[in-house]
Structure formats: structure tokens, C-alpha cells
Design brief:
It is built from 13 helices and 14 strands. It is an alpha/beta fold. The chain has two domains: 155 residues, NAD(P)-binding Rossmann-like Domain (Rossmann fold, 3-Layer(aba) Sandwich), CATH 3.40.50.720; 183 residues, Rossmann fold. Strand 8, helix 8 and strand 9 form a beta-alpha-beta unit. Helix 2 runs parallel beside helix 13, helix 6 crosses helix 8 and helix 6 packs antiparallel against helix 13. The longest helix is centred in the middle third of the chain and has 20 residues. The radius of gyration is 23 Å and the shape is elongated. The relative contact order is 0.15. Keywords: NAD, Oxidoreductase.
Length: 356
Amino acid sequence: MRTTDESPAQADSTGSTRPPRRPRTVLAMDAGLLDDVFPPAVRLRLEEAADIRPPQVVAEFTSPEAVAALAECEVLLTGWGCPPIDTGVLDRAPRLRAVIHSAGTVKTFLTPEAYGRGIAVSSAAAANAVPVAEFTLAAIIMGAKRAFPLAHLFRSRRTHRTAADLDRHHWLGTHGITVGVVGASRTGRRVIQLLRSIDADVLLHDPYVSDAEAELLGATRTDLDTLVATSDVVTLHAPSTPLTHHLLDERRIALMRPGALLINTARGPLVDTEALTGHLVSGRIDAVLDVTDPEPLPPGHPLWDLPNVFITPHMAGAQGNEVGRLGALAVDELARYARGVPLNHPVLLEELERIA
């Protein structure tokens, strides 16, 4: 089924229609990921929307072929593995008008100078937020039911648990739990939306969100100390910036309730690993960690073997057949650009310092 972004003609702001043009576009990403990001149906839409030159992926911007492609390029369609787009690259791309990223953050490869040259920037972070939020909801449900420590006991004993196994916890299960969401990012907002499917009260901490906006999202806005002290589950969805480094330090981790669950699917440096380790080794709290600091943890680190800790290899984001969702969003954005209508997922200069 075609979306509105695939229509052969589209009404502009004046109500008239015109056939979409096909802007000269260069693909810049890891060539090995091309078929995952743009599976056949998405690749067909891409070729309908853009004039891809050269037809192969550009892995660097210095060869004569790459320099020639940049000179004619109007859109850079980037992805994981994109070479740095610095001032020199921008100088070699005088016709560049848009960078459309078929993955999450653009901060790792794109110089902010692009904005000063009037270049529009878009990201597929919203598409990547979908599987991260789904992973988080699964972690909340499994963690609330103590699936991870109970599975460890079951494997070691080969018998069912006893009533005393988890009697240190003041709660077990999802009914009426309080979930504290740290960060109203794309993922954080989607987590709040998904939490409507279970009987949970939702707290939100985000310094850029008002009480009224939090209420519209379905959460109660609060300060971070109150959130960690009163939540049964604390789930992190903030970017890694100097302001958020060790957002959960020893003091705040100590505020968490006995038996509380910490979930980190955002960035490892949000949490002081040394401080967290002490609270997890003691068994006072549980954790699901898709990211750590460092990442991965050293082979002998105590968190690897704790029954109350579930560590995954930074896999909450798009994997396998989920990756095509990112490419589809990027093609939608490219089609919108070609028609001269605003991008749906712009990355704005004023937001760079506070987004992932």
C-alpha cells in the first residue's frame, strides 16, 4: 500500500499540484547495510523519488569519483557508517540542500556548520524509537514479574521457587506499579504511550517539558529525586551530554526503593557504573542494561554474573527486519523534500545540545 508520501503528485501549500522532481542524491553509508536499510520495496520507492548518482554507495568523500558526485549532489542520504561531513566536504558540495539520515543521531558525523549553509537535516530517530520502546516495555513487564532472577533460580535448582525466594521485595507484578520515565525523548514518549496497556502510574522527569505537556502525554511531571525515590521502575531515555553524565549517581541510586528496577536503553554514561554495581551486588535493586559504561563491561566485571542483572548487547534499537523501517522513513522524508513540503522529522540546530 502506498503512503501519501508516495503519491505521483501532491498539493502544495497553495492547493495546486505538481509532479515531484527527482533530486540528485548520493548514498553515504556502510555498503554492507544497504539492503537491510532499503529492502526491495523501499529501494524501489527510493529510486522513484531520487536520481541516485553514483548508483553505488559512497564510503568516503576524497576519491575523484566521490568529489565528482558531491559537486552535483543536492541530497546526501546517509546511514550508519557515513564518513564525517565536515567543512571540507561541505565546500565540495555547493549544491547540497539536505542531509537525510536513515538512522538515529546525526551528531557523530555532521558538523553544525551545515545549518549555517541553509542545509535541511532530517533523521530516522523516530523510527528507531519504536523498537527501543517495545524492548523497554518488555523489560518493564519481565522485570516487574522478577523473570530474570527467578529464571536464574529455576535454572540452578530445577525446581519451582519458594515463597521465601523474593520475600525481600515489597511488590511483584505490574498491577498498580509506578514507572518513572527519565527523558521525554522520542523513545520516552513512546514508552509512556505503550504503558497505557498496563495498569501503571507514570512519572516523568524532563527539564524541557511543562506540567501541562506531561499531562497530555499521560504522565505526571516531577523532579528527578522524587521520581527515583517513588518509582518501582526507573527507565532512562535521555541523551548523553555533559549535563546528563552520571545523572544517576550514588546519591540518586541510593534513593531507589528496595526491589526497584532500573532499565537503561539510552546511554551508559547516564549511570555511575561503580555506584550502581554496589547496589546490584547487594541485591537491593534489579537492573536491565542494554547499554553500560564502559561498553561492553570488562570480562571480569561482577555485573556479568548477578542473577538480578540482565545485560543485553546494545540491541534495543532496530535489528534485522526492523532496520527497513528506518529506510522507509528516510525515503518518505526525501520524497517530501522533492515535493517542496516541510520535513516531518527535522533535526534543528537549537535542539542539538539536548538530543541524542
